[in-house]
Specification:
- By secondary structure, the protein is mainly alpha-helical.
- It contains 9 helices and 2 strands, in the order H-E-E-H-H-H-H-H-H-H-H.
- The protein has helices spanning 2-14, 33-40, 45-56, 68-71, 78-88, 93-104, 110-115, 118-125, 131-149, and strands spanning 15-17, 22-24.
- It has a two-stranded antiparallel sheet.
- A hairpin with a 4-residue loop joins strand 1 and strand 2.
- Helix 5 (78-88) crosses helix 6 and helix 8 packs across helix 9 (131-149).
- It is elongated, with a radius of gyration of 21 Å.
- The N and C termini lie far apart (46 Å).
Length: 158
């Protein structure tokens, strides 16, 4: 009964439809807090951990180093995050990360990105879909950040 509850939760929350294909999304143990709370009335903590150990052999658990965005640092600052998200439109993650890592080895602020030549940006963004349009968009985004926020990227949506 208890294993069935946990397994049902894992199945319903780890499989989400994506535009391209149906694939399993890793789940964090912290995401299961409500299930654990329900189960604590039926089992003690060691039994719950044993059940999770058994189930984790069949279901992927999320780890910080599994996230390519975090392990490559492309979302470590608000600026890097906004640039990476802009590059990610209609593009596979691996290509975005390749372009973003190359870009962030040269720039770390909107001022620096705006200073790069169009030809150089085009070369960096080539792995990304619609790279010419994204180059224009990013330059405009940086120009607006410099004019309206003094070159600082807001940390919160307003």
């Amino acid at each position: 009964m208890v294993c069935q509850k946990i397994e049902n939760y894992l199945i319903t929350s780890t499989y989400k439809k994506s535009r391209c294909r149906r694939r399993a999304q890793p789940i964090r143990l912290e995401d299961l807090s409500e299930v654990i709370t329900d189960l604590e009335s039926e089992m003690d903590r060691s039994q719950i951990e044993k059940v999770f150990d058994i189930l984790s052999q069949n279901y992927p658990l999320f780890s910080e180093h599994d996230n390519e965005w975090m392990s490559n640092g492309v979302n470590s600052t608000p600026f890097k995050n906004s640039v990476s998200v802009t590059l990610s439109t209609m593009t596979h993650t691996k290509r975005v990360i390749r372009a973003a890592v190359e870009l962030f080895s040269e720039v770390s602020t909107p001022h620096e990105l705006e200073q790069l030549t169009d030809e150089h940006l085009r070369e960096i963004f080539k792995p990304v879909a619609h790279y010419s349009r994204k180059k224009i968009t990013l330059k405009e985004m940086c120009r607006q950040q410099i004019e309206k926020q003094g070159g600082k990227v807001p940390q919160f949506r307003e």
